[in-house]
Amino acid sequence: MKVLTIKEPWASLIINGYKKYEFRSWKTNYRGRILIHTSLNIEKNMLDRFKDYDIKYQPGCIIGEATLTDCILVDSKFKEYLNELDPIVYAKSNHVEKYAWKLENIKKYDKSVPCKGKLGLWNYEED
């Protein structure tokens, strides 16, 4: 199973239905089911932005899954679309936002699965 490790608060924003695009500096041709894994690192300078959201952070865990359906080159028109979609969630982050990975069929797990993450899109063997 493919897995994407994402720093908090971004991973929990996805799993809780607030964020439908994950940004990367690189594109992917992969389409299909992916597990969402939270990095051990939390971007503390971003937490205040989402203090009014009802989110519990769980670093170092697989917290859900989604279907990766598209990889979109982010241009000014797409940035405008994102700002209209949600100006708080899609405001400037600390990352290069060159490609938007569109996530659908997002499912939050009732029980998270602790595990080590990796860079890039990686494989996880389910027991």
Descriptive overview:
With 127 residues, this protein is an alpha+beta fold. It has a single domain (2-123), classed as Archaeosine Trna-guanine Transglycosylase, Chain: A, domain 4 (Roll). 16% of the residues lie in helices and 43% in strands. It is built from 3 helices and 6 strands. Strands 2-5-4-3-1-6 form a 6-stranded mixed β-sheet. The longest helix is centred in the middle third of the chain and has 10 residues, at 76-85. The protein is globular and about 40 Å long. The termini are close together.
Features:
Archaeosine Trna-guanine Transglycosylase, Chain: A, domain 4, six-stranded mixed sheet, 3 helices, 6 strands, about 15% helix
Task: Please sum up the structure shown.
This protein is of the alpha+beta class and 127 residues long. 16% of the residues lie in helices and 43% in strands. The protein has one domain (2-123): Roll (Archaeosine Trna-guanine Transglycosylase, Chain: A, domain 4).
What is this structure's SSE topology?
Elements: E1 2-8, H1 10-15, E2 21-24, E3 32-42, H2 44-47, E4 61-73, H3 76-85, E5 99-114, E6 121-123
Parallel strand pairs: 1-3
Antiparallel strand pairs: 1-6, 2-5, 3-4, 4-5
Tally of structural domains = 1
CATH architectural arrangement:
Roll
Average pLDDT taken over every residue: 93
The description of the largest β-sheet is: 6 strands, mixed
Main sheet: strand order: 2-5-4-3-1-6
The fraction of residues in strands falls at 35-45%
Q: Give the CATH class.
A: Mainly Beta
> Considering DSSP H and I runs of 4 or more, what fraction of the residues is helical?
10-25%
Low-pLDDT stretches: none
CATH topology: Archaeosine Trna-guanine Transglycosylase, Chain: A, domain 4
> What is the end-to-end distance?
11 Å
Quaternary structure: single chain
